[in-house]
Amino acid sequence: MEVKVSENGLEKALKILKRNLQKDGLMGELKRRRYYDKPSVRLKNKQREAQKKKAKSMRHSAQNRKP
After folding, report:
1. How far apart, in Å, are the Cα atoms of 45 and each of 23, 52, 67?
2. CA distance 14 to 36
3. Comparing C-alpha atoms, which of 37, 17, 13, 36 is closest to residue 27?
4. Of 2, 45, 65, 66, most Cβ neighbours within 10 A?
5. Domain range holding 50?
6. Domain co-membership, 12 together with 41
7. 31 and 42: one domain?
8. How many CA atoms lie within 13 A of 28 on its CB side?
9. Number of domains forming the structure of the chain
10. DSSP letters spanning 16-37
11. What percent of the chain has pLDDT above 90?
12. Same domain? 1 vs 31
């Protein structure tokens, strides 16, 4: 990943870099890897995320069906 800094635009370049990292999912990956998760905890987290995703899709599909 490359961000070009023009003259005194360091703050702007840093903001762009952070946005690109967030978009690529690197920040979330770093947070997840900060500490070791046991395989059982990892599985529980994965199942919890799947439930959240399913509930969200159900809410969206319910909203689309209402007239």
Report:
1. 22, 11, 36
2. 29
3. 17
4. 45
5. 36-67
6. no
7. no
8. 6
9. 2
10. HHHHHHHHHTHHHHHHHHSS--
11. 43
12. yes
